[in-house]
Amino acid sequence: MTMARPALDPELRELLAEMPLMSELSAEVLAQLRQYPSTPVDALLADRQVDRREVTIPAKDGTPIPLSIFSPAGTDSTTGAPCVYWMHGGGMVMGDRFSQIDIPLEWLDEFGAVVVSVDYRLAPEAGGTTLVEDCYQGLLWIADHAAELGIDPGRIVVAGASAGGGLTAGVTLLARDLGTPAIAAQVLICPMLDHRNTTTSSSQYSNGPGVWTREMNEFGWRSVLGGLPDEEVPAFVSPALADDLAGLPTTYIDTGSAEVFRDEDTDYATRIWAAGGQAELHVWAGGFHGFDALYPQARIAATARRTRTDWLARILPSGSGA
């Protein structure tokens, strides 16, 4: 029996009715999904004055990690621009550095931010701590090359959606625990934070087709963790496990009321407050998982994206590039 669920936003419900939905993921389905083309990033850049650069950095084990760098045209070592370090979504099993890239590109437009997006390795080919450590290596590289990138090292924002939101939270925990680099803020968009799948919202979005269901979430986490016992899962891989959320940078979390991650996301914000930290939480009534990325033209999506941008405008410390 399916549990009662919050109603979808009426406009989103109409849009979602035209989208093919899945109930679960498998290795065979994943192979098919990975054949879809990447986000056509050139079309997103066509009307922007943007310089694009591709670099490759070494992972901890020496594996090459691609980074894409998008800078407002004319950015140089004296600019002192803010930087947005982007971690894409895709359940930790799909997607690439161009997935959902339209979100941080809006912040390039708004703030003159340099956007860096990382192509971390995916599960199940890579697992355990590999994904989050790939992302952390990218953050270290950004901090080490701040002058070259024309960014202010005091205005580095880490951000990501879905799996990328979970990886962003994990990278932020690593940076706090290891003492470097400095992060000005973290933006967690419908983040994938808890491998345990035990919340009410996880149960509500089970046993039925959807954008991202409990069963699909179990597949993603199983691909990353294999059969690792709960007590051996590091908190920076499944950030909801972190005992202490003190000392984190100011945090933005948003989620939908009608999605599987709702409760783990609201709990994460609550625990940041309990630890004396600062977090802004938005639960968009009737929003399903990833609604603002899938249907940015919907009124609720436009409001969610604008609210996020308004928050960044408030919290980004001033700098020479502001």
Question: What topology does this entry show?
Answer:
Layout: H1 10-16, H2 27-33, H3 41-45, E1 50-58, E2 64-72, E3 81-87, H4 102-111, E4 114-118, H5 130-144, H6 146-149, E5 151-161, H7 163-178, E6 185-189, H8 200-204, H9 214-225, E7 250-256, H10 262-274, E8 279-284, H11 291-294, H12 299-315
Parallel strand pairs: 3-4, 3-5, 5-6, 6-7, 7-8
Antiparallel strand pairs: 1-2, 2-4
Q: Care to give the gist of this entry?
A:
The chain has 322 residues and is an alpha/beta fold.
- The number of strands is 8
Q: CATH class, please?
A: Alpha Beta
Count of DSSP-assigned helices: 12
CA-to-CA gap between the ends? 53 Å
Would you mind describing this structure in some detail?
The chain is α/β, with parallel strands linked by helices and 322 residues long. Helices cover 36% and strands 18% of the residues. An eight-stranded mixed sheet has the order 1-2-4-3-5-6-7-8, with helices on both faces. Helix 5 (130-144) crosses helix 7. The model has no long low-confidence stretch (mean pLDDT 95).
Features:
Rossmann fold; 322 residues; alpha/beta
